[in-house]
Design goal:
The structure holds two protein chains of two kinds. Chain A is mainly β. Chain A is built from three helices and five strands. Chain A has a five-stranded antiparallel β-sheet. Chain A is globular. Chain B is mainly α. In chain B, helix 2 crosses helix 5 and helix 3 packs across helix 5. Chain B starts with 19 loop residues before the first helix and ends in a 9-residue tail after the last helix. Classes of the chains: A mainly beta, B mainly alpha.
């Protein structure tokens, strides 16, 4: 069951680095940033567990999340409405309370 | 244009969201995790794979799919754990075989003795003939 729906405002957890050190598919540059759920990709094995060879753990919902390029790169020179979409697992996302409350 | 990966440490630009952990653990960027960093020139030449590279690829397919001894994520974890210096210098399939080797040793699938005696055996055989030998 997916925690978030398309259009929900979320924030990527600001975890630097992950503990324990493992394989993480959430790029460094996107951690801590706010985006919007663009689509639900489905449920997949957790790469952070799979990285230890644990194949049969619970699956996690994977989302495609949309971010404004200008939010990510302080010196971004492209168009103001340029976006980047990144596929991120649910456990790396939290509700963006600040913007939801606004 | 070179983009700086943000947020930068100490970046407290007005209105810009900032998390204290970003400063505290700024060194925690994995060496491999280079999104947003200057990439330099990209070599766009096509190239054939060497026989050994095809074998490494085949071995990984066997280990992950047929034998289920390792996962692709384990391969990645091993590659990301390489010392930064090694990571920079090694080619794509050199990183693969380093990670596969370390994983198989870690998991007890092969022993260090087995590995070194097999390597000595292959070395004694002389140059690669291109066959399955």
């Amino acid at each position: 069951m997916a925690r978030f729906s398309v259009g929900d405002r979320v924030r990527v957890r600001a975890v630097f680095p992950p503990t324990p050190p493992t394989h993480v598919r959430t790029p460094y540059y996107i951690r801590g940033h706010a985006g919007v759920i663009e689509r639900i990709c489905g449920a997949f094995g957790n790469p952070e567990e799979l990285a230890f060879g644990r194949r049969y753990g619970p699956k996690s919902t994977l989302y495609r999340v949309r971010f404004r390029q200008a939010d990510i790169w302080p010196d971004y020179e492209g168009a103001a409405d340029d976006h980047i979409e990144i596929e991120i697992y649910e456990f790396w996302l939290e509700p963006n309370e600040r913007e939801n409350a606004a | 244009m070179i983009l700086k990966a943000g947020p930068q440490p100490g970046d407290k630009t007005a209105g810009r969201w900032h998390h204290p952990d970003m400063d505290r653990n700024f060194t925690a960027r994995g060496n491999h995790d280079m999104g947003g960093l200057p990439g330099g020139e990209i070599n766009r030449d096509e190239h054939d794979f060497a026989l050994w590279e095809k074998r490494v690829d085949a071995m990984m397919m066997l280990l992950t799919n047929k034998l289920q001894i390792m996962t692709v994520d384990q391969l990645r974890k091993g590659i990301e754990a390489l010392p930064p210096d090694a990571y920079e210098k090694m080619t794509y399939y050199e990183r693969w075989i380093a990670s596969v080797t370390n994983t198989l040793l870690d998991e007890g699938v092969i022993s260090a003795d087995e590995l070194s005696s097999r390597m000595a055996e292959i070395e004694a055989r002389g140059p690669e003939t291109g066959g399955a030998g």
